[in-house]
Design brief:
Number of strands: 0
Order of helices and strands: HHHHHH
Shape: elongated
Strand content: under 5%
Distance between the termini: 39 Å
Structural class: mainly alpha
Largest sheet: none
Number of domains: 1
Length: about 90
């Protein structure tokens, strides 16, 4: 069973990975949201992020808590709510 420090660390790493994807791919994020194909455009970046996350976080935490999935939605999508697009 994961302790609170491991959970906080995993959650922080997930948000850092998602933030880095946004930071280095802002144009792709905007285009992906506007065209409703965000995850297609960022496929390789997200794959690389998942690999990094899996190398540092236990499989139990990854499967149970889905921190990276949540961080990707929060950081890449919810933070871009001001963009004009058809998906909202």
């Amino acid at each position: 069973m994961a302790d609170q420090m491991q959970l906080r660390s995993a959650q922080r790493l997930a948000r850092t990975i998602a933030s880095d994807i946004l930071l280095y791919n802002r144009d792709k994020v905007e285009q992906g949201i506007k065209e409703d194909r965000l995850f297609d455009l960022l496929e390789s970046e997200i794959k690389e992020g998942r690999e990094l996350y899996a190398s540092r976080v236990s499989a139990e935490i990854i499967e149970t808590y889905k921190f990276l999935d949540r961080a990707l939605v929060d950081v890449l999508i919810a933070s871009q709510a001001e963009l004009e697009c058809t998906i909202w």
